[in-house]
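OP here, attaching both records as promised.
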Amino acid sequence: MLVSDSHKFILFHYPKTGGSSMTEVLARYLTPTVKVPEVKFGGWQPKHHYDFLQHRPIKECPYGEFSYTYFLAAFVRNPYSLVVSAWDRKTSFQDFIDKKVITKEAISTRWTQSEYLCDDQGILLVDFVGRYEQLDLDWQKFCYMTKLPKLKLSNLNNTDKGDYRQYYNEATYQIVNKLYKKDFNLFKYSEKL
């Protein structure tokens, strides 16, 4: 969780939703303030997170002391696109789905977005949910709501693999559709490819 005492916000960083770019531009506003290294790989991001861990569901984060006075936000992504982005190409896409996504071994797919952002009753725990698909627009909304200047996001950790639909067959489509059913409903994403 990225915390800013100066701007009274917490940004919960779900994997593969632009978090590296957000962390970089927010670094000087975060608590603790840590300089972003010139070389951006291998472990630089956790230093900017309040709990030193990048990707933990909200209900596991120590955010309670902030919850009533800080603006809580997160960004989400179409589950089909999210799973393709998380795929490391070390195996086939089918094997990735079968061995990493279904078993929740990959950190990027360990929790669905709804599991990550909701309590045990399914109640959303943030004030604002931005969408990766309209990242520039929703990022500017986030900046406005947190009284930040119009910060421009860089394009770090981009895993552009083209149109995500090309990787799916009927089996992988059905698996992702079933696993992320609550995400499709809660965040109003189409279940069609």
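Record two, same layout:
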Amino acid sequence: MRNMEGVFLGGALSLGLVFSQGVQAQDCSMAKWNGAAPTVPAAAVGTPQSASPVARYSEFCGLAVSATGYVQTPATSDTQYFGRFYVFPQAVTGTVDLLVAYSDTSGASPLFKISYDGTNFLFDATAASGGTGSAPANANLWNLVEFEFNSDGNFNVWVNEDWDFGTTAYVSGPSDTFASGSGTVASVRLGAPNGFTSGKVTYDAFEAHRTTNVGSLIDCDADGSGSPVLNLNDVIAVISEAFSPNTLASGQPDCDKNGSMNLNDVISTIQIAFP
């Protein structure tokens, strides 16, 4: 991960959060969360090869929501709030608020929100006297959403930024910029805090910073090394997860972002590692 200052991670059976100014390891303890626990799919998120998308885009912990439910950060006070999360929408009917930031801890005073309407991601900071924006989303695939809230300037958002192994650089996807408005982030809810009609949304790798952008993860970096150069270790990690029901790679093995691990991911990793 790039510029890591704090990490948010949600677990389906044991929801957790790491929230600090220093780099810390993943924490999946219920004590780190508060809020309304989300609905969990039949197959535990974090268990490979389930019938539904598993939160294996990059981390062991994940969060899945149907209808309503959310996890909420502990109280804080931030005039700048930079975040990133991966989301996999399935058969969503209506509009679902994926992430809502509030100026209080009770959820009565929203500042900005990120939503999904079945086609696009919608960004709205009008509650903070800011503006609105949008960017296209990919249904039935993992999507990356990065955002930057500055209470004295702009709200910036990027969708599906990706690592290009050919140029060894990040390639920006659709983006938008509008007035962020003003206010202080006191709490954030991830999931579906306002509910939605039908379908399911699965989350992974929720991370937030106070002073710098988070950035995307490197696709196919299955061993979690963070190296832009794939090697045999990544190939072994992908093969192990794809064909062993109880093995989880430590990095991001789902190369095609379709929510399942199979031969296609193995082939993609081999082709990148050994062109």
